[in-house]
Amino acid sequence: MTSLKILAWVLLLAGLALMTGLVAWHGFGEVAATIARGGWAMLLPSLVFIPQCVTFAIAWQLLFPPGRAPGFARAFYGTAVGIYANSLLPMAEVGGEIIKARIVMKGGASGVDAGASVVVDKTVQTITLVAWAVVGIVALIALDASGPTVYAGIAVVALLTAGLTGFIIVQHRGMFGSMAGLGARLTGSETWVRLAGSARALDEAIR
């Protein structure tokens, strides 16, 4: 554990050094001038982050069984760290969800509740993306956008909807139990057998 903490600090310092080097490469004066031209209004977009995290955290709490949801402070903390991880690190929008689950587990939530909630939470996020994409297409049509642009948007929404539908179907059919069960059959390992039991419990919580 100590070595991991040391590694975290080393990586943090390396990141800060890299950021400082990039600023120096572009020129401190030029960067400062750009910030000065933007003025205080450059801070406004960051204010959106706070209400976003609040609403995300409340919505996430609603996905837990009654009486077993994490407190708002821990849900907010997990949500914020998860968003930061997905935005700043190469985690393919998945690593942040694992971090979220880990944070609420450290606060007392069971692994099944935490895991199921983040899977369903990511599903809901994808559904909202589809909804916003439809809003965008309607806006493009209202603005008399070119045909290829609208058609491309419709194609993206269709593909995203198909993928989302498939994801929901495999959730209801028990994707984690199926994968762990396959691993148990192929390896015959007791570890995989125990994992299959936990995975089936996770599938049931997701459903």
Tag the structure with descriptive keywords:
207 residues; mainly alpha; 0% strand; 83% helix
Beta-strand percentage range:
under 5%
Total strands? 0
Uncertain runs are none
Mean pLDDT: 83
In N-to-C order, the SSE pattern is: HHHHHHHHHH
- Compute the CA-based radius of gyration: 22 Å
Portion in helices:
over 70%
> What class do helices, strands and sheet pairing give?
mainly alpha
Shape: globular
Largest β sheet strand count, sense and barrel closure:
none
- Taking the alpha carbons of the first and last residues, their distance comes to 35 Å
Count of runs of 4 or more consecutive helical residues: 10
Structure explained in plain terms:
This protein is an all-alpha fold and 207 residues long. Helix content is 83%, strand content 0%. It has 10 helices and no strands. The protein has helices at residues 2-26, 28-38, 44-47, 49-61, 72-88, 95-106, 111-142, 147-173, 175-187, 190-206. The chain is globular, with a radius of gyration of 22 Å. The two termini are 35 Å apart.
Task: Give a short summary of the structure.
With 207 residues, this protein is an all-alpha fold.
Topology:
Layout: H1 2-26, H2 28-38, H3 44-47, H4 49-61, H5 72-88, H6 95-106, H7 111-142, H8 147-173, H9 175-187, H10 190-206
Helix pairs in contact: 4-5, 5-6, 6-7, 7-8, 7-10, 9-10
